[in-house]
Amino acid sequence: MPELDLNLIPYLVALNETRNVSRAGDLLGVSQPRVSAALGRLREHFGDPLFVRTSRGMEPTPRALALIPAARDALASIERGLVAPHDFDPAKSTRTFSIALSDVGEIVFLPRLLQAFAERAPHANLRSASLPHAEVGRALEDGGVDLAVGYFPDLGGTNFFQQRLFTHRFICLLRRGHPLAAQPLTLEQFLACGHAVVRAEGRSQEVLEQYLAKRRLARRAVLETPHFMSLPFILSRTDLIATVPHAIGYAYATEHASIMLVEPPLPLPRFDLKQHWHRKFHNDASVAWLRGVVADLFNDALDEWPK
């Protein structure tokens, strides 16, 4: 196989992050035809389509998923070389890193991040910041937080960079012994039974609510709460069900023996989890290191929650 043109690596990574030729071009600052041409060269080089069109957009092939970690590592190595004059040594750093996370984000991201910090940056610290959705962009610009990680659909524009980590989905939760636990959940049952509904501003739950409203599917919201954290305790003592991001459902079902997962009775939408940062800190060596750790730990290949 001839040597790969290294200029094509950013295109491979951008296509995986955006799953769209036009958005990949926007991310890289090049035209759509240029991205299409680069994809053609990548396909020819690897003898694989790499990305195929589906009802959910462009999806990577197994070959592409196998290539992405090495491609990200290559870009990270280049970036580390470019920011090397700032001389950041994670093994010696006592820096406190700050990440904007939702309560769901803390459950999804913090356990593995803390494990990675213990191994790679044992003297550094981590702070989770829970901010109103409208304040996240300003916090990134001012350096109040280094990254925003999770579902932040309104963070865009030329001053912000974003990197797609993985695509996530929804799952239903109910208690073991629930009258609906013995058989697959039907749409009629889903709509008729009582629901515990999380109302969280600007978060992934809005994707679910908009999807149901568009199809005129009305659930019976017996309980509305702004918090996910109380759900397992509420569900374990009632006949309510909840529809939540799969990661949090998986965590609750793993940690609470009384809670079980049930597949929803209709194909609910999926959403991308990303990391965001301000262009002011794009070349900051410590923030670049943190971004590399996040991308290394959370991606399609390593998404630990069953699809």
TrEMBL record:
<dbReference type="InterPro" id="IPR036388">
    <property type="entry name" value="WH-like_DNA-bd_sf"/>
</dbReference>
<dbReference type="InterPro" id="IPR036390">
    <property type="entry name" value="WH_DNA-bd_sf"/>
</dbReference>
<comment type="similarity">
    <text>Belongs to the LysR transcriptional regulatory family.</text>
</comment>
<dbReference type="GO" id="GO:0003677">
    <property type="term" value="F:DNA binding"/>
</dbReference>
<feature type="domain" description="HTH lysR-type">
    <location>
        <begin position="4"/>
        <end position="61"/>
    </location>
</feature>
<dbReference type="Pfam" id="PF00126">
    <property type="entry name" value="HTH_1"/>
</dbReference>
<dbReference type="GO" id="GO:0003700">
    <property type="term" value="F:DNA-binding transcription factor activity"/>
</dbReference>
<keyword id="KW-0805">Transcription regulation</keyword>
<keyword id="KW-0238">DNA-binding</keyword>
<dbReference type="InterPro" id="IPR000847">
    <property type="entry name" value="LysR_HTH_N"/>
</dbReference>
<dbReference type="InterPro" id="IPR050389">
    <property type="entry name" value="LysR-type_TF"/>
</dbReference>
<keyword id="KW-0804">Transcription</keyword>
<dbReference type="Pfam" id="PF03466">
    <property type="entry name" value="LysR_substrate"/>
</dbReference>
<protein>
    <submittedName>
        <fullName>LysR-type regulatory protein</fullName>
    </submittedName>
</protein>
<dbReference type="InterPro" id="IPR005119">
    <property type="entry name" value="LysR_subst-bd"/>
</dbReference>
